[in-house]
Amino acid sequence: MAIRLIRRAALFVLTLLVASIVVFGLLAILPGDVARTMLGVDATPQAVAALRNEMGLDRPLVVRYLEWVGGMLHGDLGTSYVTHQPVAAAVSDHLQVSLILVISAMIIAICVALPVGVFAAYGQGRISGAVLSALSQLAVAVPGFLAGLLLVIVFAVTLHWLPASGWVAPIEGFGDFLRHLLLPALSLGLIQGAILSRYVRSAVLDIMREDFMRTARSKGLTPFRALIRHGLRNALIPVLTITGIELAALFVGAIVIESVFVVPGIGSLLVQSVQNRDLIQIQGIVMVIVAIVLVINLLVDLLYAVIDPRLRTSR
Amino acid sequence: MSLLELSGLAVHSGSRTLIDNLDLIIEPGERVGLIGESGSGKSITCLSIMGLLPEGLQASGSVHLDGVDHDLLTLPESRLSTLRGQRMSMIFQEPMTALNPLMKVGRQVAEIMTLHGRHKQQAAREAVELLARVGIPDPAAAAEAYPHQLSGGQRQRVMLTMAMANSPDLLLADEPTTALDVTVQAQVLDLMRDEVAESGTALLFITHDLAVVSGLCARVLIMRDGVLVEEGPIDRVFNDPRHPYTRGLLAASALATDPRTGKLITVPRAGGATDSPPSPQRSDDAAQRSDDAVRRSGPATHEVLGEDGSTIFNQTEDEPAIRVRGLSRTYHRGRTSLFGPRREIRGLDSVSFDVAAGERFGIVGESGSGKSTLLRLLCGLDAPTSGAAEVAGVQLAGARERGLGRLREQAQIVFQDPHSSLDPRMRVREVIAEPLRHATQAERRTKVADLLAAVGLPAAAADRYPHQFSGGQRQRIAIARALITEPRILFADEAVSALDVSVRAQVLNLLADLVDAYALTLVFVSHDLNVIRHLCTSVAVMQSGRIVECGPTDQVYADPRHPYTRQLIGALPTLQTSII
């Protein structure tokens, strides 16, 4: 087990390194000069060159890359070209908001997907199963931003229960924080939950056909108890894979929802940085998102071994 | 009062009848064998009694269990589940998949006791005691293990422990030893007999293998296509079968040969027509080659592995079809510690032997003996760690895939499972003709037609897909595919193990005919000693990656010299029948 951990950690660091080269390289070959953008079209070439020199953009790529990576090791993502504030601080502020949003959405997704998926599978061939299955299929087809707008119309515009947009940090008032969190988290989570429930359903259906489920029945377990006691944990293995992929996708999906609800998350920051051609900030944000996705993958890999004893090959 | 009474049981799947009007009575403590081939409805019978029929199957008739005032077929699920595991329980064929892979063995055994009212701690304690009783070494540790950490035989012991934990009145065993090695099978059968005798449990033992029930059951039922064709005391049924199907089944199981033709007796089909294809004609040229081959290979010598482990078995003076010297294949397990050496597993350990041209060479051994590893190496599907092998003049060690083209033309293989070894999306014509690289369409067409005729399939089969054929027919297709390159050597990996006994006889007859007609050298790998005895002239016995004994088949079976060979032959269930 220790060997597996060390191996997996080494792979993690290596992937991160490759990702940093790709991110840096891609943004470096992108057309559009920062200095020129900042100074506007009327700037003289001398002024642009002076600014490039000041910002260090005239030095070789390798030097700039090493400087960037070296900075990251101490948590320094550089200084924004536009706001002249440290990138790391901006990223960490916005990331907190996104993390709260994404994790709440994932919890909602799982809370929806597990019961819906299990009952859709268990009720297969019956009306209850067909209804659940049809509903989840319908929800899969709805884009996240549309779900968000619908929720706003119902709960904010018509019922006035919840605010239509904005964000309040938890320390500024927990009740207010929850009220602002609910709609964006629901519009992200419900759709992901519908998608996830399709996978839960198919995993549970597969498990119900397994030999050991028949054994469980022959021991005297009723079909439902057999499913809960023997089926669920087995069905969780394929579901975990999808959950990991979805969690990563949620960070990307959050960009749209953050715009719809005017939530100051990492997505909003990214959009803003792209508009300003704030390359150093874009680099930092993308790198942080890549790192998060890799951490999620790492955790999922480790969780497999927790669920499935066959993967703990220490004996 | 009898324990179990089935009357007029019928099971339908839509309009199809799977079981028709079945009557069966089992007395308390009685041991009954239910014998039939795949599709005969024997497992469906078992599942109807338990009330575990898969969705879509409807049972009618009645099933009465002593002490239950209600027909089991219409009993509500809540009451049925109190009977299952308590009054009647079941053991399944595949012990790996029948146990929950994510639950500790002890908990799985204890669960059946807690479900029927035992206290949790007490059940956990008893589970360990029960595991000890069925002969599992270190039962306390086994209770804490997961199923994948046990061997196949141990898993089936766990299944038996579980089924017998509440001393049920009726045990239903569905092919419980089919997936086990012969020596393990014998142990599990003994254990099962002791367990049911001790607790006075009645046994309904389902199997396709007549020999297995010989020492176990007093009464047998023979089932075919959902209908009971014969029933009676085992001695009477096995020695004086009244139904022609029973007679055929007995002959096919014993691999009996017809004295007139020297071929295996096959089971008559329902319509009366035989499925046996006409023997393939052997060309004069091939006949000449094969006669030469037989003449050249003198009688093989009967040898046992020497102390130093370097014996060269079955050595021939002439150029052999296969020459293997010191062949080894080592596998590496994942590292368990950072600095320690990697664990090595010797799949094949310095094996040396020859196979003469035209010889029928059998390799027999249990799972894990290295027989499949050896075969994979000889077919060029895997590379040896060390040693040398020459097959049909091609050096295998160090050869690259590119250089193996000639080998693939000269040596072909037929695999065990005809269901999964044929590409389901290719037509039979494409499956068979695929190895032909440079042939024209017309050549392909005639060759495929010739081969289909040779393996006894109609020419129209070429345009159909593999799933439209039965298991036996699919294996014929696999054989046709193997023969299209006109190989000199045919490898067969458990080629009849997945087939029913009646079909097995047909495929074995076909293989024997084709080996003659095409003057092939046959290397037949099997766990089934009877099949090897029938088909092969020489046999090598493998254990733990080595050949431990090798010689002419008759001599090895009549006078086994290595202790392992003796054990293997001793464990073979024998069919006591006098009809042959």
TrEMBL record, chain A:
Domain ABC transmembrane type-1: 95-304
Keyword flag Transmembrane: yes
Taxonomic superkingdom: Bacteria
Major place of residence: membrane
Xref: Pfam families: BPD_transp_1 (PF00528), BPD_transp_1_N (PF19300)
Family: Belongs to the binding-protein-dependent transport system permease family.
Name this polypeptide is given: Peptide ABC transporter
Organism: Microlunatus endophyticus
UniProtKB/TrEMBL annotation, chain B:
GO biological process: peptide transport; transmembrane transport
Signal peptide boundaries: none
Keywords annotated in UniProt: ATP-binding, Nucleotide-binding, Transport
Keyword Nucleotide-binding: yes
PROSITE patterns found in the cross-reference section: ABC_TRANSPORTER_1, ABC_TRANSPORTER_2
Matches recorded under Pfam families: ABC_tran, oligo_HPY
Source organism superkingdom: Bacteria
Single annotated GO MF: ATP binding
Keyword Transcription: no
Ranges of compositional bias, category Basic and acidic residues: 282-295
Domain annotation ABC transporter: ranges: 4-250, 322-569
Annotated region described as Disordered, given as residue ranges: 264-317
Annotated InterPro entries: AAA+_ATPase, ABC_transp_ATP-bind, ABC_transporter-like_ATP-bd, ABC_transporter-like_CS, Oligopep_ABC_C, P-loop_NTPase
UniProt record similarity statement: Belongs to the ABC transporter superfamily.
Name of this protein: ABC transporter permease
